Amino acid sequence: MLNSLLQRYLLLSVQTRRLAHFLFLLLSLTISQALFALLARSLFLDRVGPGSLPLLFTITPLVLIVVSTAFIGVVNRISHIRLFRWILFGSILFVGAIQVLITQQTSSTLPFFGLYILSNLLSVLLIKISFSTLFSDYFTALELKRYTAFLSLSANLGFLLANSLGSIIVQFIPPESLLLSIPFLYAIAIAQLVYLERDQKSIEINPPDPSQSSQGLIDSLQKFPRLAKQYPIIFYLAVSIFIVLLLRLLTEFLFSTVYTQQFPKTKDLTSFLGISSAIFSLVQLLLTSLVTTPLIQQLGISRANLIYPVTTLISFIGFLVNFGFPTAVFANLNHVAIYRSIADPLKSLNYSAVPPQARDTFRILSEGLFSPVGEMLGGLILLGLMSSMNYFPISFLGVILSLILVGVSIKTGKNYVQSVMKMLISGSVNLYQVRKGLTLPSDYQSEVQNLLSSRDHNSQILGLQLASYVQPPQQFLPEVNTLLTQADPQLRQAMVSFLRQLPKPIILDWVQQGLNSDNSMNKAVALELLIDQNQSIPETQLTTLLTDEQEEIRALTCVAVTAHQQSLYPQIQKTCQQLWQMELDCPIAQATIDVISHTGRQELIPILYQILPLASCEIKQQGFKALVNLASPQDIRLKELAASELTNTNPEVRAAALQVLGVIKDPQMLPYLATFLQDIDCRVRSRAAEAIAFYGEKGLSYVEECLLSERQEVVETAITAIGYIGTNRAEDILYEHLSLELQQVSRTLKWQLPDEHSSWKLFAIAIQDFQFRVIERVFYALSALGCHHTLEAMRVLRYSTNKRSRANAVETIASLRYRRFILPILPLLEQWADEPRSRVEITLNADWMKTTGYKLLLEALECKDRWIEIGAIMALATVPSLLIQTSDSLVQEVVQQVFPSTAPLSDINLYFMNRILLLKNISLFQKMSLDELLILNQEFVEEEFREGEVIISEGSIGTHLYIVSSGCVALLKSIAGTQQMIKQLSSGEYFGEYQLFAESPSRVGAIAVTDCQLLKLEKNRLLSLTYQRPDILIEICKQLSQIIEELLIDTNIPPHQ
Description:
Layout: H1 2-9, H2 14-47, H3 53-75, H4 80-103, H5 110-138, H6 141-169, H7 175-178, H8 181-199, H9 210-230, H10 232-262, H11 266-304, H12 307-321, H13 325-351, H14 356-385, H15 391-426, H16 431-434, H17 445-453, H18 457-467, H19 477-483, H20 489-500, H21 504-515, H22 520-532, H23 539-546, H24 551-563, H25 570-580, H26 586-599, H27 605-611, H28 617-630, H29 636-644, H30 651-664, H31 670-675, H32 682-693, H33 700-706, H34 712-725, H35 728-748, H36 758-784, H37 789-799, H38 803-814, H39 819-822, H40 826-833, H41 846-862, H42 866-875, H43 879-883, H44 889-898, H45 911-920, H46 930-937, E1 941-945, E2 950-952, E3 960-966, E4 969-975, E5 978-985, E6 990-991, H47 993-998, E7 1005-1008, E8 1012-1018, H48 1019-1028, H49 1031-1050
Antiparallel strand pairs: 1-8, 2-7, 3-6, 3-8, 4-5, 4-7
Helix pairs in contact: 2-5, 2-6, 2-8, 2-11, 3-5, 3-14, 4-5, 4-8, 6-11, 9-10, 9-14, 10-12, 10-13, 10-14, 10-15, 11-13, 12-13, 12-15, 17-18, 18-20, 20-22, 21-22, 22-24, 24-25, 24-26, 26-28, 28-30, 29-30, 30-32, 32-34, 33-34, 34-35, 34-36, 35-36, 36-37, 36-42, 37-38, 38-40, 41-42, 45-46
Transmembrane segments: 21-43, 55-76, 83-102, 114-135, 147-172, 178-196, 233-251, 271-293, 305-325, 369-386, 391-410
Protein name: Cyclic nucleotide-binding domain-containing protein
GO molecular function: DNA-binding transcription factor activity
């Protein structure tokens, strides 16, 4: 009931409702666990005392390891949502039992140990494991990434509410009594899980390999020494993780001790802990949103790594100087806010310096070994130091460990840069992936110089990219000047990008030197930078540059003087006009267009007007691309220029001109643009659709006419254009275009056929073919409306063998906002995603024909789809023999004369239909539509072979794919000088496909066992077909895989080896 109300009145999609379920569930769990942790911590400190924290720190990780290991062992054997409920129910019992023990006011401290350990254990089991696992049951990995921000907000809100309200309520209700609220909160979570299970459908998970979890840690540990030797940053990161855990335990022990002394009453301590936790969370959010990113960009990762070690060192020095409340508050602030907002993000960035192939190994070790061992060691150290009840040694140890962490962080920063450089040079990552926070110290000057001096083109470009990360970047100008002698366009572009990042005075100084240089490349780059910096050419150099022997120098000079209106001088104007009237060489025209495009200045557009009419097709494309970014609407001259190129024989030029006309938005051009929706070239049609979309709803009436075209490609282009327009009216037009077919799909879903009967088989295939074609059209329309991921979901549905992936794809599609398009085809999509279900068997007899079959055939004949009509007509051949059952010989004779075609389909003389059915049953072509098979059928050549006749000789070069239409064919292999049959093929099987792709002599021969008919498809036609339909290649790969597996089994080699 609630679900339907939400759907009707709040218009929430399935996906949104599912996300809301999990956000509220996480909110409930976070509130319960934050409140539980607050009460457990305050009661432990008050009743047991901080002196027992070391023992607690030692026991807790041991319990966590044992319970988590046992939990992981059963997590995939039981329904996740059911296991979640069991844990919550067990938690209610445990908390209730501990609460009873506490209220009995016994002198034992065990209940408080149990309470603290249980709060930590449930935080891991309920949130880190159970919630995360359950979330992955309902959402894909991509959706998890998309919704991370919402989950983080929900968790932070729960934490703030629990601590804030807890600090207030504890003033009126004792913490022991407030513990009763925890089972109540767990009961709410159980109710949420029950409602979730009823309202939402989970996705089944394929069972994992049981060996992976048990051997992962051991395998990772074995790989660690080799990885640490190759990439030392892995070793330093491991050491820092270990030390940070020790320091955090020492810090928590010290500030907890101070808090206990400061607040001797339980309610006061609980209230303070709640308020301080809420404040620290707010500080964390402020630091994360306002400080962290700019700080890392300013300092770089190497130096930013020192922030948390230094603040931790300050906190321990504070404990040495003054073991008091202010120091404890700062240490707690550093422990929570600074660690979570700065140290945690930096740890993730440091992970980017670990090679991709080693990251999983390192994560397993850090989470499964370093963290729990460090926590246990910290507890043991505290136990040893607490024998004297002196806090000075603990604080002093904290100072020593903090200094070690500072040193390790310095080494981590240095190795971070080394590791990143090694990965960049090897090509395992690109600069874009690791550029955040990257700064190169001065000692990397020589390495960058080596890259710039290298003869390798890619190394030179990488050197130019990295040069701006070393301060000061102008120190590399000598190497850059050397590279200028190389006339490589890509390298030149990288050099210009580097020079643009230099300080302006240095750029202008370099420009002046370049203009005075004898090197034409120096002059050209200097002019590019001069135009980019919006500087005019000195009058003393203007004449020299305009008369330079290099045409590129003269062209760039004319661009520069036009930008600063220096071309107003008659002589300069005349010189530039003469230059633009010439047909410029491609590189020169390209450089001119690039400079104009980069400046973004509209006053330079007239230069393009003069260059483009005489330019080559390639330059016209680049020029129009630049004009798209520079032009303004209603530019008459530009409209005339673009319109004049619409008759160009080069389709790419026509497409580029259409793109410009879209920007101009001249309503008078709309009818003309609409004609290009029917262009023979797909690129032109696509650009025409984009151009018309710029005009908004004004273009709908012109596009709508193309939906009636007999050419499918024109209809698809019209759908694309309507989707680009994307208004409500555009959506209505698309839905109206598809509505009749969607209604017909709904009707076909109700049809149950006796498809095992030969005369009805084509009818069943025609229905499936129609349904699939409609689904393809719906997906195409949705993609045009902006739901691009629907096409990927469609591919997953068709080709994935993973049930979970297929179910994920259906859920993604079902969550789209265009639900009226999806609902009619949703049952079909769910059938594809699910395992094949057993169908109701229908016996073809007179009773079924009278009650159902005849009506069904009449409905089918009214359908406008030709294949369904043909299938229904073929099925009608069974009607006379079923409905007219008589023993009277005269009646039988009349029936035979009136209904001569009462024979089975295989006997009816519809040759082309038999051929299409044959092709449809072949695995290579099963995913092709009947229309496609009708065309493909024309490509096959029929050939007859007599019994014993050789079809292919072993060792011959394959030229055709062969399909057995009738008869039997034997595949032969010469073994030890004798011909042995390795396989016999019958109607519907094929051979010869592997040799077409391998381009090697055939390893087998083929001979006709009986008189047979074969269909031959020529090699080039098959190869062309695989480009259009990749599923053919997928099927061939499956067949090869099966053959290889059979061969391995024959040789006693396990397939996985």
